[in-house]
Design brief:
By secondary structure, the protein is mainly alpha-helical. The protein has two domains: about 1-130, Serine Threonine Protein Phosphatase 5, Tetratricopeptide repeat (Alpha Horseshoe), CATH 1.25.40; about 275-500. It is about 60% helix and about 5% strand. The protein is built from 20 helices and seven strands. The protein has helices spanning about 5-20, 25-35, 40-60, 60-75, 80-100, 105-110, 110-125, 130-150, 150-165, 170-185, 190-205, 210-215, 220-225, 245-250, 290-315, 335-360, 390-400, 405-415, 420-430, 455-485, and strands spanning about 280, 330, 380, 385-390, 435-440, 450-455, 495. Helix 1 (about 5-20) runs antiparallel to helix 2. The radius of gyration is 25 Å and the shape is globular. The termini are far apart. InterPro entries: HEPN_LA2681 (IPR040826), TPR-like_helical_dom_sf (IPR011990), TPR_rpt (IPR019734). This is LA2681-like HEPN domain-containing protein. Keywords: TPR repeat. Pfam families: HEPN_LA2681.
Length: about 500
């Protein structure tokens, strides 16, 4: 027999108070609740949450695994309840983090748990059926997992999306500010802007401590509140009131290519300033500039072209001379939708080129004509099929090249079962088959195995997301090269190329 509403409320208060004072005691009490309540869903849900949260705080792996077991049991019975999936994700991340052993092998050993957590967070974050505040929390937690894998560009995108849904989410604001200040320390383009935005986030978070306490435990709040002790200089955040529609589009979705994650400098005519600093080339230097520069220039050009095409399509800056048959299913045809699918496809093609560039630069084994982003970084052992980094990648990561962690984990998320898999599926659909967009998906469509149907709004979201993903990959591969050059600096001269304007000839 289940608890009455008052009994349940009293139990919840008791467990929370215990957690705030003595996490280990809260774990013991939660275990007792599960032992007594059996399979009562509400009691199990409450106790499992305490087991995970208090277990994480107390460093009790067994408690976290018991909480995970309970959440998985509940989720298996109610797979459409995305909040249960969110709880499973939290438990998976708690387990993964408790397994940390000061070894970068942790990333491979916990990869499946963390990839599953990211997928579950993304399901909640993108669901229109879920409360906006919970969606914001899912974006924040997803961002945290990306940040911990050195995927800073993607992490900042998700913190930003969290704040669009819940501007009072101080947790997202504090973490976003931390990333901005990290990048600002490089003193590159936009450093002052990033500091200004970081200050804005920290001030807003400091003004709403009660909201932060609603989102995290008392233990976590104390850690986050340490950021409030910083001095906050008076700086103005960027003003885009005089920006062009294209500039606003690029700034809103953070689609610029520069050593920055926030802030578009409108005073510059060329704001996509990300370049390679220099390449050590040894004896081959007499043959001319390293081919890597040409590869990176092409990557950058492809991305900027995809971004341009996407902007033109999304803002109807296209004249269509075609007329099309009405397929009676609210489908959209014409140059605009074709440009949208073309831009999305180009973004995913960029990922394969990123892999080819890394393959050549790191001198990985294999035919460079058969290199794909999803297969470049990992291999499985012959005996047990255990996933591991390929030897040169592993060696580079162990030397401190953390950008390869970012690239390899992005590849995992693009694969089947990853939270970005639909973007890859969309690319395949528009490349090898037919992708048809609709005002809204009709309830009845004549099925075809060679046509993939998408709602227009859904496809737009994935197009923007694909631009952000390809931008992130270009950032990571540039960072990988920079770190490699620093790690392997043996005093040889590096080849640096001047930057010049490219125009029509």
């Amino acid at each position: 027999m289940g608890l009455t509403q008052k009994q349940f409320s009293d139990l919840a208060d008791e467990l929370k108070q215990l957690f705030d004072v003595d996490p280990a005691a809260a774990v013991a009490r939660a275990r007792a609740v599960i032992d007594v309540s059996g399979r009562d869903g509400n009691s199990m849900l409450l106790a499992a949450g305490i087991l995970v949260d208090a277990g994480k705080t107390a460093g009790d792996l067994g408690a976290v695994e018991k909480g995970l077991e309970c959440f998985q049991l509940l989720f298996a019975g109610f797979p459409d309840q995305r909040v249960l999936g969110y709880n499973v994700a939290n438990a998976l991340m708690a387990r993964a983090n408790l397994l940390w052993a000061n070894s970068l092998d942790w990333y491979v050993q916990t990869m499946e748990d963390r990839a599953t957590a990211r997928r579950l967070y993304a399901r909640v974050a993108t669901s229109g059926a879920v409360d906006a505040n919970l969606r914001a929390q899912a974006h924040t937690n997803l961002a945290n997992t990306l940040r911990d894998a050195y995927r800073f560009s993607e992490a900042y995108d998700h913190y930003s999306q969290a704040l669009e849904l819940d501007p009072y989410n101080g947790v997202a604001r504090i973490h976003a500010a931390s990333l901005l200040l990290r990048f600002a320390k490089r003193n590159g383009p936009g450093a002052e802007t990033m500091v200004a935005v970081a200050v804005h986030h920290l001030k807003a978070a400091k003004e709403n401590p009660a909201r932060i306490k609603e989102l995290v435990s008392e233990w976590e709040f104390k850690k986050l509140a340490e950021s409030f002790h910083h001095e906050f200089p008076a700086l103005d955040v960027p003003d885009f009131s005089d920006a062009t529609p294209c500039q606003r589009f690029i700034a809103e979705y953070r689609l610029f290519l520069a050593d920055s994650i926030e802030g578009l400098d409108l005073t510059l005519e060329k704001w996509d300033a990300l370049v390679l600093d220099g390449i050590s080339d040894g004896a081959d230097a007499i043959k001319g500039p390293p081919p890597l520069f040409a590869m990176f220039n092409t990557l950058k050009s492809d991305y900027l072209a995809a971004r341009h095409v996407a902007f033109q399509a999304l803002h109807d800056h296209v004249v269509d001379s075609g007329s099309y048959s009405d397929t009676e299913d609210l489908a959209q045809y014409g140059i605009v939708t074709a440009l949208m699918t073309l831009a999305q496809r180009a973004c995913l093609d960029i990922l394969d080129k990123v892999a080819v560039l890394a393959h050549e630069y790191l001198k990985l084994a294999g035919d460079s004509n058969k290199v794909y982003f999803v297969t470049t970084w990992f291999e499985r052992t012959k005996n047990k099929g255990i996933l591991r980094w390929k030897s040169p990648v592993d060696h580079e990561v162990k030397r401190g090249n953390t950008a390869l962690i970012a690239l390899s984990e992005l590849a995992r998320d693009i694969q089947d079962g990853g939270y970005l898999e639909l973007k890859r599926a969309m690319r395949h659909a528009s490349t090898h088959r037919f992708a048809v967009l609709h005002d809204s998906l009709p309830t009845a469509i004549r099925e075809s195995t060679v046509i993939a149907h998408y709602a227009h709004a859904e496809f737009v979201d994935h197009l923007i997301g694909s631009l952000q993903t390809s931008r992130a990959a270009i950032h990571y591969v540039a960072e990988m090269i920079s770190k490699h050059e620093a790690i392997h600096d043996d005093g040889r001269p590096t080849k640096q190329l001047s930057v010049r304007e490219m125009g029509r000839r």
